[in-house]
Amino acid sequence: MKRTPLLAFNDKGIYCEQADVYLDPWRPVTNAIITHGHSDHSRWGHQNYITHYQNVPIIRHRLGEINVTGKSWNETFLVNGVKFSLHPAGHIVGSSQVRVEYKGEVWVFTGDYKTEDDGISQPYEVLKCDTFITECTFGLPAFNWLPQKDVFCDINNWWAENKAEGQTSILFGYTLGKAQRLMKHLDTSIGKIYTHGAVENMTEVLRSIVKLPETTLITSATKKEELLGNIVIAPPSAHGSPWIRKMTPFVTGTASGWMAFRGARARRAIDKGFVLSDHCDWYSLLDSIKATGAEKVICTHGYSDIFSKYLRELGYDARTANTQYEGESAEMGTTPENENETAA
After folding, report:
1. Which domain holds residue 175?
2. Residues forming beta bridges with residue 131, ordered by sequence position
3. pTM score > 0.70 for this model?
4. Cα Rg for the chain, rounded, in angstroms?
5. What span, in angstroms and rounded, lies between the C-alpha atoms of 116 and 149?
6. Which terminal residue of the chain has fewer beta carbons within 10 Å of its beta carbon, N or C?
7. What gap in Å lies between CA 281 and CA 137, rounded to an integer?
8. Residues 76, 178: one domain?
9. Same domain, 132 and 197
10. How many structural domains are present in the chain?
11. Are 302 and 135 in contact (CB under 8 A)?
């Protein structure tokens, strides 16, 4: 008799039938374990939410007053005999992997993750398992990240050069995670950090969790002369808006893994692109999978077909599964399909 998998993919999300629990469901369910606060993984409408305690204020800020329980790292909780625990994913503040164990079988769902320590998120933890569910947002060999310190050296030099030329630096990064990572590593000896309202609101939520530098909210009373030589952190959606046009003269930059693609910066009419992602690159994905010892791998959002094919060539029992997760595409308005170019 064919054994029912411990976790199965259906039209609502990733489902553990034995426990009647979903992981990051995209349709309303009774019981949901949420890996992190990005909108493609934490959605409104579930009756009961379980997440890491650091993620509680984040999802409440985004979803309102929900019935949510916070757990600590490595804290085991039982649901109908199934052992669940949350472990650091390193993606953004409060992001988790979900470990699921039943009758000696162990599955791990990563949600979104990265293995480089960004200085604000709890660093990624390797978990041994039988089956590993991995994202593939950047699952192509073309994606090979430089160390974070090198990228921030470039960003700070760019800011200093813009200041010397009497221009405002506007740096785009998604509101939750990337924006705070940027401000954490900016060299404030160059100038002040100003923020868009959406960035400032989320940053205030995170200040209770992680230490961040001082920022100044841009309001209708802010004069563009105040901004000259300083840096503004804004969401990508602000690009081209009336809000930003009032800041002339300015130079724009974007921090994203998609900046590894030749032409991505030009298509967005961005002056400078910095390759900085909160997801694994190709090599980190492979190293992570190997470290788990898993024989079975399920590849979700991103370049899942290409990546799973390569894993099968390496000898893994690998397949793909459809989800409604979007990875960095959700925040940047891009998908692998419309970024299919040769990387720089």
Report:
1. 148-274
2. 107, 296
3. yes
4. 20
5. 11
6. N
7. 8
8. no
9. no
10. 2
11. yes
* Chain centroid, CA 301 distance in Å: 12
pLDDT tens sequence for the chain (344 residues): 557 899 999 999 999 999 999 999 999 999 999 999 999 999 999 999 999 999 999 999 999 999 999 999 999 999 999 999 999 999 999 999 999 999 999 999 999 999 999 999 999 999 999 999 999 999 999 999 999 999 999 999 999 999 999 999 999 999 999 999 999 999 999 999 999 999 999 999 999 999 999 999 999 999 999 999 999 999 999 998 999 988 999 999 999 999 998 766 656 678 999 999 999 999 999 999 999 999 999 999 999 999 999 999 999 999 999 998 876 554 444 433 333 222 22
Half-sphere exposure of 296 (CA within 13 A, CB side): 14
Query: Is residue 270 in a domain?
Result: yes
> 150-171 in b/e burial notation, b at 16+ Cβ within 10 A?
ebbeebbebbbebbeeebbbbb
Q: What tokens were used for 45?
A: 């409408």
In this structure, the answer to whether residues 12 and 131 fall within a common structural domain is: yes
For the record, the structure tokens of 49 come out as: 């939410």
Q: Give yes or no for a contact between 194 and 215, defined as CB atoms under 8 angstroms apart.
A: yes
CATH of the domain at 98: 3.60.15.10
With respect to residue 341, please indicate whether it lies within any of the assigned structural domains.
Answer: no
CATH code for position 236 = 3.40.50.10890
Clarify whether residues 165 and 117 are in a common domain.
Answer: no
* Partners of 216 in the β-ladder: 194
CB within 8 A of 230, min separation 6: which ones?
163, 168, 169, 191, 192, 193, 194
Both tokens of 306, joined, read: 């290409």
